[in-house]
TrEMBL record:
Source organism (scientific name): Lepidothrix coronata (blue-crowned manakin)
Molecular functions per Gene Ontology: GTP binding
Domain G: from-to ranges: 197-247
Protein's recorded name: Nitric oxide-associated protein 1
Keywords: Coiled coil
Gene name of the record: NOA1
CDD domains: YqeH
Biased composition (Basic and acidic residues): 321-336
Region called Disordered, residue ranges: 316-336
Classification of source organism: Eukaryota, Metazoa, Chordata, Craniata, Vertebrata
PANTHER family in the cross-refs: NITRIC OXIDE-ASSOCIATED PROTEIN 1
Domain NOA1/YqeH-like C-terminal: 409-509
The keyword Coiled coil is annotated on this UniProt entry: yes
Coiled coil: 253-280
Length: 548
């Protein structure tokens, strides 16, 4: 249960090192809450006692994957971001905005809000759009990253971001490091150290993960990773609640030269030449994503990263009791010197902008963890006849109502979400019987859970096939995933797609991965399903063995 509050104790003036909220023990439903007993024990050591501590919410996210509900409406998120952007330029030049876009969410529902955030009174110098999570998507054909970048550029243009306002578009994986060295080089080359940088993006776009990766890169001052605490990373939307920051390094000619020499040297290595520790970490990343990169540091000796982000002795308590004071002596924390920060440019992480009409807003934290993909997505393809229905858990449904021939339906969603195919005549009965139960899995909780869950509402869709190797469109079932539809040339299909009431259903034309149906094995006899096939992972800037 949440810890005990104490209304008599004023806020600390010290930020949580996980989310940036001001630490306090008066309101258990507000950001920055820490149980009163723990708060007082740390405060007794002076201001330094609270520095580096995390609030109860960040602790629960890091150790339990559990999100404590907060009374923080979407307007509050926007207010914090808007106020930050309207600060007067500190160095004679407005900030650069790094907008982090989840490529799986295209068309990004928050991107059209960015021009409004850049309205009158905002001295921003431009937007660099970072398409994140490319590691989760398989290469459906050669040139797939170029097509993805084109889709991102089209989304930017529709949102009103073009011309001088759009500095660049970069595709990365903040989690596996793919594209990150290129992003750092782009920032050094074009932005240098001209002004502050703000990370913006929708909740769950991977913004805090990008912040953490940049913190461990050549974009950050060399001592900063030892001093700055990382942002809390969790699948629950809206994790970062206030502004966290790190100082940006000044890319002098000497530093740029040394960095380029390091990158050249690393690009000549093969996997066999890596240390056993590097190989182990690389193999771990290969299991996580299709695209992998190595993010190094030129200006600091590499240190072993701790497995646990937060010191368990600083905040070790069970979810059923208040934290107990630890007798362990706290280590002396390093601090920046005055000269290190007096003229510093900073990279700020901001609160995620809440996505409206999103299915994730209807789910519990346990359900969110099943719905949001965190490892490489393995596409699942089915060949369906007219009169067939496909369920994606109990969060989406597609009925194939009319058509002359069979068509291919490729599901791109979390590997943990079940797909169930049945006849159209049985579909309603299947949903009534199994929604909330193991067969459809999400939502979970049986009849009681489904009583409060919105009903599925239909939308009719007409598509015309363009050939048996290329999908005509994606049917995006809010943030639960999408289904790419491939049909014979000129074949007309009448479909009916369903998502929970109040969530967005989008027909994406052209599709994000048009050749996705080719990533499949043989047909499973007696079923509509094909065997799945997972393409190999690609490691950036690493020679393949024997290529010398």
């Amino acid at each position: 249960m949440p810890g005990v509050p104490d209304l008599s104790v004023p806020p600390s003036g010290v930020s949580c090192s996980g989310c940036g909220a001001e630490l306090q023990c008066a309101d258990g439903g507000a950001p920055g809450f820490m149980p009163a007993e723990k708060y007082r024990s740390l405060l007794s050591e002076g201001a330094a006692g609270l520095r580096g501590a995390v609030c109860q919410r960040c602790w629960a996210l890091a150790h339990y994957g559990r999100a404590l509900r907060l009374q923080l409406p979407p307007d509050e998120h926007r207010r914090v971001v808007s106020e930050a952007l309207r600060r007067p330029p500190r160095h004679g030049r407005g900030p650069l905005l790094l907008y982090v876009l989840d490529v799986l969410e295209l068309p990004d529902p928050v991107l059209p809000q960015v021009p409004a955030l850049l309205g009158p009174g905002v001295p921003a110098s431009g937007v660099l759009v970072v398409g994140n999570k490319v590691d989760l998507l398989p290469a459906d054909a050669p040139g797939h990253l170029g097509r993805l970048r084109k889709r991102v550029a089209e989304a930017c243009a529709r949102a009103g971001l073009a011309g001088a306002a759009l500095v660049d578009i970069r595709l990365v994986s903040a989690k596996t490091g793919f594209g990150m060295e290129g992003l750092v080089s782009r920032l050094h080359r074009s932005w240098k150290c001209a002004g502050d940088v703000y990370l913006l993006g929708a909740t769950n776009s991977g913004k805090s993960t990008l912040f953490n990766t940049l913190l461990r890169s050549d974009y950050c001052k060399s001592r900063a990773p030892d001093i700055v605490d990382r942002a809390t990373v969790s699948p629950w939307p809206g994790t970062t609640l206030n502004l966290l920051k790190f100082p940006v390094i000044n890319p002098t000619c000497d530093r740029i030269f040394r960095r380029q020499e390091r990158l050249k040297e690393e690009a000549t290595k093969t996997e066999d030449e890596l240390s056993s520790e590097e190989k182990k970490y690389l193999n771990h990343l290969k299991k996580q994503g299709y695209l992998v990169g190595r993010v190094g540091r030129t200006f600091q000796r590499q240190k072993a990263s701790p497995v646990v982000e937060f010191d368990p002795d600083m905040l070790s308590y069970s979810m059923d009791e208040d934290p107990k004071h630890s007798p362990k002596k706290r280590e002396q924390r390093e601090e920046f010197t005055h000269n290190e920060v007096k003229d510093a440019r900073w990279c700020f992480d901001t609160p995620g902008i809440v996505k409206e009409d999103c299915v994730l807003n209807l789910l519990t934290e346990k359900e969110v963890k099943l719905v949001l993909p965190t490892v490489a997505i393995v596409p699942r393809t089915f060949i369906l006849k007219p009169g067939t229905t496909l369920f994606l858990a109990a969060l989406g449904r597609i009925d194939y109502l009319q058509g002359e021939k069979s068509a291919w339906f490729s599901v791109v969603a979390s590997n943990l979400l079940p797909v169930h195919v049945t006849t159209l005549s049985n579909a309603d009965a299947i949903y009534e019987k199994h929604a909330g139960r193991e067969l459809l899995k999400v939502p979970m909780g049986g009849e009681e859970r489904m009583k409060e869950f919105p009903p599925l509402v239909p939308q009719d869709i007409t598509l015309k096939g363009i050939g048996t190797t290329e999908a005509v469109a994606d049917i995006k079932l809010s943030s639960a995933g999408w289904v790419a539809v491939t049909a014979h040339a000129e074949e007309e299909l009448l479909l009916r797609a369903y998502t929970p009431k109040g969530t967005a259903l989008v027909v994406r034309e052209p599709p994000l991965l048009p050749y996705i149906s080719s990533i499949r094995g043989s047909r499973i006899a007696g079923t509509a399903a094909y065997r799945t096939k997972k393409p190999p992972s690609l490691v950036e800037n690493l020679k393949t063995t024997g290529s010398r």
